[in-house]
Predict the structure.
Amino acid sequence: MSESSSSAFAGRVALVTGGSGVIGSAVADVLRERGASVVCADRAATGDWRGADAPALATAPVRLDVTDRRAIAALVERIGLLVGPVDLLVNVAGVASFGSAESLAESEWDRVIDINLKGAFLACQAVMPSMKRQGFGRIINIGSVVGKNAGNARPWIDAAEQECAGNVAYGVSKAGVHVMTGFLAKELAPYGITVNAIAPGPIATPMTTSFPPQLKALIPAGRMGTPADVANAVLFLASRDAGFITGEILDVNGGMLCD
Ligand SMILES: NC(=O)c1ccc[n+]([C@@H]2O[C@H](COP(=O)([O-])OP(=O)(O)OC[C@H]3O[C@@H](n4cnc5c(N)ncnc54)[C@H](O)[C@@H]3O)[C@@H](O)[C@H]2O)c1
């Protein structure tokens, strides 16, 4: 069956962290359109998953902080009981961070690494046992081009603006996500589980509205990415057709970085 058909993901159960956000909701939409049951979990959501029944779980986003290991494990267990074992995890939850390395507060470093890197790891850990039991799973982590290029070059900016443009904690957190993806890919490959990451370039979302328009000049495709560009890459990596692809960091960046 073609992965673009409306039932290509029928029977599949997905957990999308950061599912209230712009990219997360686009990911949830394309998976639902293809028949998957999708649970969106997000720190900003108001729904309480503890009392939710199966339809409620798979409809509106539920509140979850990905840095809370016990809560993630309990949510995954509840999804397994009510909806079915999670066979697709998409780690989208993340926060941006700006500021020069010299002035970056220790608390900001900890916050960004905790959410973007540890949070993604904890969610992966939570789904591993049931994916292994099923002998099938897809884990897709959202990294970033900034985790590869040590920050977007902004040759037009002056020193004062550079202070705002720096984002070392964010870049390191996303580089960590890329490396973690490889480690988990190797550990889980014997169980039919693939683990991949997507490294988007700048995507037109509120996270990037403060970016200067000149940034487009760094993107050979001549435009920012869209949430759909990322969601379509998720669809491919989540598909059965992508079963021999694991440990890959898939660039979705309009040619901004070719490595
Ligand atoms: N927008 C871009 O240009 C871009 C580029 C590369 C990578 N990314 C990554 O894509 C992902 C989504 O970005 P977006 O642009 O949709 O931003 P967004 O702010 O719309 O979405 C991020 C979501 O993560 C949630 N979140 C934050 N901390 C959380 C926590 N502790 N627990 C649970 N949820 C939490 C937020 O509430 C938000 O809904 C992020 O990981 C981001 O780093 C974005």
Q: What stands out?
A: Helices lie at 22-33, 54-57, 69-82, 106-134, 146-149, 159-165, 168-188, 227-238. Residues 17-18, 20-24, 42-44, 64-67, 92-95, 115, 119, 142, 144, 200, 202-203, 205-208 surround nicotinamide-adenine-dinucleotide (CB under 6 Å).
